[in-house]
Amino acid sequence: MAFQTHPGSVAALAALLASPVLAQDSSVTLSPVTIVSSADDETVSETITAEEIETRQPATLNELFAQSPEVVVSGANRMAAQKIYVRGIEETMLNVTVDGAKLGGNMYAHSGNFGIDPDLLKRVEVEAGAGSALAGPGALGGAIRYETKDPEDLLLPGRDQGYMLKLSAQTNGRRVTPGLAFYGTPDERFGYLVYLTKSWADDYKDGEGNKVADTGNDPLDALVKLRFRPADGHELSFSTTYRRDNGRRAYRSNFGIPPGLPDAIPEDQKLGWRSTSVSYRYNPAGDPLVDMTVSAYDTHSRLLRDIEVRQVSEWDTRGLDIRNRSDFGQVALTYGYDYGWTRSRGESGAGLGGFERGENHGLYVQADYTPTEQWLLSAGLRYDRATLRDLNGNDYKGVHFSPNLRLRYEPTEGLALFASWGEAFRGVQPVEGLTLIWPLGLGPQTDTSLTGELARTAELGAEWDRDGWRAGISGFTSKIEDKIRSWQGRGSPWFRENDGEIESRGITAHLGRSWQNWSADLRFSHIDVKYNDEPVSPGDWLDGVTPGGDKIVLALGYRMPAQNLEIGWTSTVVLKQTDLPADFQLDELPGYDVHDLTVTWRPARNQSYSLALTNIFDEQYLDHSTAYYGVDGWSNLYETGRSLRLSGTIRF
């Protein structure tokens, strides 16, 4: 395969990497900007750190979660089409937040709902399955929490202000992404961060060298953070994140469709979203009973189909959370109230339009009891009252108490056994904006007695971490009962109705060891997803589910301290999937294996350079979650073929 790049991009990168900047030797301890966590670490099943992001250089969500055993992303590298699934459950049934701001739901069934430059992220936490009362309302399949970088993450030791230049490029698709950040903590009271990135990319090629249509993009990402501490124990924080991603996209961009078919004809689309969160924290020194946070958020997503008869879909969420944590020694209580407001709106140039609006009031408490150093008992309860007014003025109301229980026992040093069970409730949700402009509207088949959906998750497992060895195994089962389906058949009105039950069950395991400068980790997951007792396929994307299957990830690492080098190798193997519906057109989903090499060099504290060679053996493959198009055969929305990536960062 012949590598290509934009003219001048290599020279620009080389000029940036060659800039001589001296690192500061002094150090100082700085307090981070506080973003209120919505759950404790015991409920988190996976964490992606800033160091991993720097090393692997992911540009899109599917690359960010590529090595996750429980998370898959559909839509290949077509950013506008990407949707995330946790244990086979779509993101619209999870509580997804950025710096505490809850993201919206569907704007259009054939497009994604969220995107961000991974380089802006400090941390990503995945909480799989219904669990803690602190996960927020509607967390049927769990939660994903994106936390963006803070000024302290970028400041050089001994400095109170600075700026950063970054440039990254990759050969496949000729992507170039410059970044610029300004940040500082000029005194103990104030901190700020402004971070901008912009990408330009052409259509990429798959493992056979074929261009994948409509995958070029040029997103703009921005992050602004402010923090003010007027007095001891008081903190005000502000965070806003913005993305604009416009381009030519297929009408149904989540499908891989042969060119020339109506659903594949490109059109101009403008996609954007913004999230803003503000919070006030009061944590007086010496008072274990008061650690109170009041936070509010506002998010807005918008999709414009700039066609002959233009169409607009919008999704807005606003909310408030008031919580306090009281520590009584062996017992710690976290309790509070949250409120969420959601609106979906559609508008057509033909004069059609409408909206649906919902609300949720929640009360919650989570108690952690540690009678001895070996035992932890956590129990919680949520009360949710959800309402919705639909397009025709029908009112829906659902009320539910959701309990949870978690037990952890450490019989000896390094060994932990745990078991958990929890419920989550979600009221009736608005439908996507483009459905709200459907000319035939809401049909009489709609069940106006619907109250909501209920999820139950049980998990059992063990962990070992001692003498350089780490291992773990867990088994889980999750059920979402009273699944509500909003369906729009061609030539008929759309409707809401109860459509049955989703079940996800499986096992995850990992084994790893660190010795001297080496590390090795092996992760495995087997996930089985069923809808109304039938296996699911990529063709069931409209129901919010995708096949699970078997995934194996091997990660090897080697550090060379004297040379300031880190070398990593990752192999990801997905086995073929044969447990498919009887009426599915294929007998199996083919398996595949992908291998990546990364090298990171940090010659000074203020400099970091990374090289990554991804999909080394140029495998042509389809992610099993990518939507299947049943009329004209199997999807051609293949993942990215071999690509060389370079990245350089310098902080001043």
Brief overview, please?
It contains three helices and 33 strands. With 652 residues, it is mostly beta strands.
What features would you describe in this structure?
The strands form four sheets. The chain has a 22-stranded antiparallel β-barrel. Strands 1-7-8-5-6 form a five-stranded mixed β-sheet. The chain has helices at residues 9-17, 50-56, 61-64, and strands at 46-49, 71-74, 83-86, 89-90, 95-98, 101-102, 121-128, 142-148, 161-170, 175-184, 190-198, 220-228, 234-250, 266-282, 292-306, 311-327, 331-348, 353-369, 375-389, 395-412, 415-426, 453-466, 469-481, 484-488, 494-498, 502-515, 518-531, 534-535, 549-560, 565-574, 592-604, 607-614, 643-651. The protein is mainly beta. It is built from three helices and 33 strands. Mean pLDDT is 90; it is low at 1-40. The longest helix has 9 residues, at 9-17.
| Secondary structure tally, helices | 3
Rg, nearest Å: 24 Å
Number of strands: 33
- Assembly level: single chain
* Low confidence ranges: 1-40
Overall form: globular
Helix content: under 10%
What is the straight-line distance between the termini?
38 Å
Strand proportion: over 45%
Most strands sheet: 22 strands, antiparallel, barrel
SS-derived structural category: mainly beta
Mean pLDDT score, rounded? 90
Layout of secondary structure:
Elements: H1 9-17, E1 46-49, H2 50-56, H3 61-64, E2 71-74, E3 83-86, E4 89-90, E5 95-98, E6 101-102, E7 121-128, E8 142-148, E9 161-170, E10 175-184, E11 190-198, E12 220-228, E13 234-250, E14 266-282, E15 292-306, E16 311-327, E17 331-348, E18 353-369, E19 375-389, E20 395-412, E21 415-426, E22 453-466, E23 469-481, E24 484-488, E25 494-498, E26 502-515, E27 518-531, E28 534-535, E29 549-560, E30 565-574, E31 592-604, E32 607-614, E33 643-651
Parallel strand pairs: 5-8
Antiparallel strand pairs: 1-7, 2-3, 3-4, 5-6, 7-8, 9-10, 9-33, 10-11, 11-12, 12-13, 13-14, 14-15, 15-16, 16-17, 17-18, 18-19, 19-20, 20-21, 21-22, 22-23, 23-26, 24-25, 26-27, 27-28, 27-29, 29-30, 30-31, 31-32, 32-33
